[in-house]
UniProtKB/TrEMBL annotation:
Sequence intervals crossing the membrane: 15-34, 81-100, 112-133, 145-164, 170-189, 248-267, 276-294
Pfam family, one: Urate_ox_N
Molecular function terms from GO: electron transfer activity; heme binding
Keyword list, A-Z: Membrane, Transmembrane, Transmembrane helix
Urate oxidase N-terminal domain span: 4-294
Protein known as: Uncharacterized membrane protein
InterPro entries xref list: Cyt_c-like_dom_sf (IPR036909), Urate_ox_N (IPR010389)
Domain of life: Bacteria
UniProt source species: Pseudomonas kuykendallii
Length: 405
């Protein structure tokens, strides 16, 4: 029952995280679009531009002030709880998935850290990451946005590499995303919202607003905008072990993040200029190249066909599958069974079961990817699958994944 309740708790928090995350990112994308589409020709006094739009059967007229209107409106809508709710639900998900069972999802097999130490490393990295980021933005680098952006990228990639040295690949990715998410919500809480409150207070007190504060908030808002696509990739990455399961997972994450930032920059600028249109085909080519590189086909000999080996070296299919079946039932069916014996699961994860020979044969490609190539299964290697056993399964699959007749 405990595993069942944990699974539903995971589902509920994950669903909330997705809903509020969509709201936050959607608002961010909309306001960047709005900023890029303002008509700035001959604006009315005090305005920096306006925009006419049609949506949902109605016509809207939006105006942006250079700083603020002469008098504050009675109702002013703020955008903050989307960000706070996304971070809070994300942190709750981090606790449920990784910190409640650190030996399963958080720690890499053979890690020298204890579960408690791993949790402290994760939490400490989030806190230190925000303060380092904030310090850099407030330093002289803050006056050079391009150089600041490059510095931040290098440091985040370094953090991803560091996480990959002590955490499982999946946990390394998620902690990189949590680090970026913490920076993003810190920008809202510590910079963007205070700047907006100062602006409103200045108007209510009939004094000239300080233009430096909105400018600082705009810089942090732009950072958040460019962070969104890498974070979205990280949110779905746990479904793709060929990325986080690779020995070079941090480098794959860096490459995908660069492509994502290029795509985001194209959409940010496409209404003002078309000179970044090359970013879309480059991103597509980059993803295809990454798929090829991570397939393991570069620099490694092709797997020989089943009949390429001398007959004397080929094990009979029946004996081969008997050995494979014994390994899978010992190492894998504690979770992947109609009736899991692991206390972590009340039902087979992702519906994958290895109770029958036919189920094992059907799932051979996924077994190859998860347990042989990337070696991310069993989770945290809690059942202690050996390299010899992984090699045995890999050889069986390479020989055609035949069953005992």
């Amino acid at each position: 029952m405990e595993a069942h309740l944990t699974e539903w708790l995971n589902l509920t928090i994950r669903w909330i995280h997705m809903i509020v995350g969509v709201a936050w990112i959607g608002a961010s994308f909309y306001f960047v679009w709005l900023e890029n589409n303002l008509d700035r020709r001959n604006p009315r006094e005090g305005l920096s531009g306006d925009l006419w739009a049609i949506h949902g059967g109605g016509i809207y007229h939006l105006e942006k002030y250079k700083l603020a209107p002469p008098q504050m409106p009675e109702n002013l809508h703020w955008f903050k709880w989307e960000a706070y709710s996304t971070w809070l639900s994300g942190f709750a998900l981090l606790m449920v998935v990784y910190y409640l069972n650190p030996g399963v999802y958080l720690l890499a097999p053979g890690s020298s850290l204890s579960p408690a130490q791993a949790v402290l490393v994760g939490l400490g990295a989030l806190i230190a990451g925000w303060f380092i980021y904030d310090l850099l933005c407030e330093s002289a680098l803050g006056k050079h946005p391009a150089l600041l952006g490059l510095t931040l990228f290098v440091l985040i990639v370094f953090a991803a590499w560091g996480f990959s040295q002590v955490f499982s690949g999946r946990a390394a990715y998620i902690h990189t995303g949590a680090l970026i998410g913490t920076i993003m919500v810190g920008n809202v809480f510590r910079t963007i919202m205070p700047a907006q409150r100062a602006l409103v207070a200045a108007i209510e007190q009939n004094r000239e607003p300080d233009p430096a504060l909105p400018a600082k908030g705009l810089l942090r808002s732009r950072h958040n905008n460019y962070f969104t696509l890498p974070v979205l990739f990280i949110m779905i990455s746990n479904h793709f072990p060929s990325t986080y399961g690779s020995h070079y997972n941090w480098l794959i994450l860096a490459a995908i993040s660069v492509l994502a930032v290029l795509v985001r920059h194209y959409f940010n600028t496409r209404h003002a200029t078309g000179k970044f249109a090359w970013a879309l085909p480059l991103a597509a080519l980059g993803m295809i190249s990454l798929a090829f590189v991570t397939s393991g086909r570069l620099g490694t000999p092709a797997t020989p066909a089943p009949n390429a080996q001398p007959a004397a070296q080929q094990a009979p299919a029946a004996r081969e599958f008997d050995k494979v079946s014994a390994v899978i039932h010992e190492r894998c069916t504690v979770c992947h069974s109609a009736q899991p014996t692991s206390p972590l699961f009340s039902a087979a994860p992702a519906g994958v079961m290895f109770d029958t020979p036919q189920q094992i044969q059907q799932m051979a490609p996924r077994i190859q990817a998860q347990a042989v190539t990337n070696q991310i299964m069993p989770l945290g290697n809690i059942t202690q699958m050996t390299q010899q056993e992984r090699d045995l399964i890999g050889a069986w699959i390479a020989n055609g994944a035949a069953l005992d007749k």
